[in-house]
Design brief:
Elements (H helix, E strand, L loop, with lengths): L1 H13 L9 H19 L12 E5 L8 H14 L4 E5 L11 E2 L6 H4 L1 H10 L3 E3 L3 H11 L4 E5 L11 E7 L27 E5 L7 E6 L2 E4 L5 E3 L7 E6 L4 H9 L4 E6 L8 H4 L7 E4 H7 L7 E4 L2 E4 L3 H14 L2
Helix pairs in contact: 3-5, 5-9
Length: 332
């Protein structure tokens, strides 16, 4: 059911499906609520909390995968190389913890804290706290760690949390779809919101005023043996391609570039995988995203491989981000 709904709305939002008109009344109501909420925070009718360390938000104005997670990893690595002690906060989406916030470690259960949080813990190796109340997650990090800058994975619309730098990620291929707000379109906020962020990063080709980001997946890592081999080794082979992210077509297209024939298995973002989803009645290799592999380790087998990705940013982005961070820190 969820897969059907995902396909339906992707067609409506990105394929100019006429069905969007059915949702325009609800979309109008949603747009008014967005304006009222933003106005309330801008005029201090609702309280927004500040913090003693800089907060960098990496988010977007649309639903679905745009490339936030690879960019968060890249930003954290940049901050480390510049001598900072970064930490991360995240929503812990789909996590089933009984209380929040939760500390996340490399061995945390993704069912409890969410798949993206565990992926970030394994890749970034820095303090991470997750929970629906990002202010509480920040307070927990400040109380229990010595971090001096915090990166928020998503949270562009979490106005109860004051931020020093906003980075918006845009899908360079799908852009803003039909430019309509939910549910008639994919947008959480109007495109004009991007006029107020500090940086716009395009996952793909960049428009004027944007910074291009190339997300590359060049190797596959075996879930059982930890063996690594280049994706070109799968050239000419047929594989099962399993994907439960916001934009599975991006993952499939990346594999096809290596001459791999795919049996595609697309699932909704944050799909709760079971054994039948990734174990098939043949000996073909199974390639999946790194985020999906976090949840599939409990039924891993020798045929299972995941494809880690690495973000490559426009060369001007790093120095400008660090310079702005120093400026905002000095004026904080």
């Amino acid at each position: 059911m969820k897969s059907w709904l995902t396909r339906f709305f992707n067609n409506v939002w990105y394929g100019n499906g006429w069905q969007c008109v059915l949702f325009l009344p609800v979309s109008w109501v949603f747009s008014q609520l967005v304006k009222i909420r933003r106005f309330a925070y801008d005029h201090a009718w609702k309280q927004s909390q500040s913090f003693p360390v800089p907060i960098i938000v990496v988010g977007n104005i649309s639903v679905g995968g745009s490339g936030k997670t690879p960019l968060v990893i890249w930003v954290v690595e940049l901050l480390k190389s510049a001598g900072y002690r970064p930490a991360i906060i995240s929503r812990g989406y789909k996590g089933k913890a009984g209380s929040w916030p939760q500390q996340v470690r490399i061995d945390s259960d993704p069912i409890i804290v969410g798949d993206e949080a565990v992926l970030l813990a394994r890749r970034c190796k820095c303090p991470i706290a997750v929970g629906p109340d990002r202010r509480a997650a920040i307070d927990a990090l400040l109380q229990h760690t010595d971090c001096d800058v915090i990166v928020s994975d998503d949270g562009l619309q979490h106005y109860a949390m004051q931020r020093d730098i906003e980075i918006a990620v845009v899908d360079g291929v799908r852009r803003y779809g039909n430019h309509r707000l939910l549910p008639a379109g994919p947008l959480r906020e109007p495109v004009s919101r991007l006029d107020n962020v500090d940086f716009v990063v395009s996952n793909g080709v960049a428009d004027r005023g944007e910074y291009a980001m190339l997300v590359k997946g060049l190797v596959a890592r075996n879930l059982v043996s930890d063996k690594v081999q280049g994706l070109e080794r799968f050239n000419g082979q047929t594989v099962h391609a399993v994907c439960g992210i916001g934009n599975p077509e991006r993952f499939f297209a990346g594999l096809k570039k290596f001459g791999i024939t795919l049996i595609e298995h697309a699932y909704p973002d944050h799909h709760p995988f079971n054994k039948k989803d990734v174990c098939f009645d043949d000996d073909l290799p199974v390639l999946m995203t790194e985020k999906d592999a976090v949840k599939c380790q409990r039924f891993q087998c020798q045929q299972h491989w995941f494809v880690p990705v690495q973000a490559d940013l426009n060369k001007h982005f790093a120095p400008r981000l660090l310079a702005l961070l120093e400026k905002r820190k000095d004026h904080g």
